[in-house]
Amino acid sequence: MRETGASSLPRWATLKDACAIRDLRQLSRRRLPRAVFDYIDGGAEDETALRDNEDAFLDWHLVHRIAVDVAERSHKVTLLGREQALPLVFSPTGLTGFYHPNGEILAARAAGRSGVPYTLSTMSVASIEEVARGAAETDLWFQLYGLRDRDWMHGLVARARDAGYRVLCVTLDLPVSGRRERDVHNRFTMPLRPSLANLLDLACHPGWSLGVMRSPPRFGNFENADTQGFTNIAQRIAGSFDASLHWGDVQRLREMWPGPMAIKGVMHPEDAERAVAIGAEAILVSNHGGRQLDHSPAPLTMLPEIAQAVGRRAELIVDGGVRRGTDILKAAALGATACSVGRPFLWGLTAGGQAGAEKAIAMLRHELDVAMTLLGVATLGAVGRDHVRPVARRTRV
Ligand SMILES: Cc1cc2nc3c(=O)[nH]c(=O)nc-3n(C[C@H](O)[C@H](O)[C@H](O)COP(=O)(O)O)c2cc1C
Question: Quick one: which of 348, 342, 269 has its CA closest to 303?
Answer without folding.
Answer: 269
